[in-house]
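Hi R.,

Here's the chain you asked about this morning:
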Amino acid sequence: MPRYSGFGLAGRERPGTNGKVAAVTDVARMASEADVGDEPGVSDEHRAADEPRAADEPRAAETNRERVSRRQVDKFAERRAQLADAALQTLAELGYARTSLREIAQNTAFSHGVLHYYFTDKQDLITHCVRQYEAACVTRYDEIVAAATSADQLKREFSVAMAETLRTDAPMHRLWYDLRNQSLFEESFRTDVLEIDQRREAMIWSIVSRYAELAQISAALSPAAAYAILDGLFQQALLHHLAGDQDAARDLAANVVRVLDTLEVRVSGATGTT
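And the predicted structure, written out as tokens:
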């Protein structure tokens, strides 16, 4: 599955300087990168050659303003993505309650002032981080679904993949469950958490529905119920894994197989259940 790794980005508060001055300097430098005049590879001659005739100047000026504005927006979004990527490790290690923007700044290559420039507050940053991470994670089983030619193959590879992500990405999964619990109290990012949860449900249903198709059965479960069962197994295994249980991942894989084996099903097209 796709994973984030680039935590060594430039921009750390410089030693020996006042933190506020360094932060302002960093903000000014980063904001200036959105200026179209700094665009690499465009010479003055090319700009002069592209200047419109007088009759077209009003419309050309408007177009240029739109282009500059669009580039600034793109630069801003790109920088937010970089900052979120860099902050993920700290958030995953400390959790929501123990993490502040200042704490993130101390553990990443960006100053406190830069974080405040690009994010309104901690909730804004954390929500952006999780949405960015989940955008990649919800596709982690797509290749397994697409490549499976039998129900047994899908069941085997899916269970192995769940166990593997438990081992390799436990801190990030812990952060997700932390935020989902926090959304019960923090209304500000409840909508985002619900949206992510729906995408995760769709991810699990793609597995279950494809398994049923390959096995020529119809799962007598709703997408929400299937998600609740498999997500519950994963969260329980995560807790055991974090507590030092060396068999947690293996037990998870075995339980996933059992769930797929024992789902209440009916033969496709039949009126009764088996």
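The longest strand covers residues 217-219.

Let me know if you need anything else.
M.
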